[in-house]
Amino acid sequence: MTHRSASPAVRRLLLRTGAIGAVTVAATLVYLWQHLAMVELGYRVEQARADLALLKHRRAELMVEVASLSSLDRIERLARERLGMAAPAPAQLVRVIEVSPEGPAGPGGGGRSLMLAANAGR
Q: Minimal CA–CA distance to 119: which of 97, 89, 99, 98?
């Protein structure tokens, strides 16, 4: 029996079956595509989590390094050993008083007092 000699009812049945098959195949392909996309995203999320853990660990290491490098004892030692610096003599210290609108530093005053080393070359 050829396709031309099929009755209209058979043709409609074949067309309907083909359409249902095409929709089923298309739906299956969409489902598979979404599933594969989700699996790929899952791998990317896990990689991002691993990268984040590594970066957090590295940040903690760097914070420890910053703390050790910014130690005042270390900075003073380097200033003395490498730069030949020394602590200023008491005669080289100058008191600087910041005056605020409330008045000079002191009890009830609104300023503050700082001790600075004067330039020995002046």
A: 89
Transcribe 19-71 into DSSP letters: HHHHHHHHHHHHHHHHHHHHHHHHHHHHHHHHHHHHHHHHHHHHHHHHHHHT-
Given a contact cutoff of 8 angstroms between Cβ atoms, the answer to whether 94 and 119 are in contact is no
In this prediction, residue 122 carries a pLDDT of: 46
Task: Give the count of beta carbons closer than 10 Å to the beta carbon of residue 6.
Answer: 13
CB 119 within 8 A of CB 88: no
Evaluate if pTM is beyond 0.90: no
What are the residue ranges spanned by the domains of the chain? 1-85, 88-122
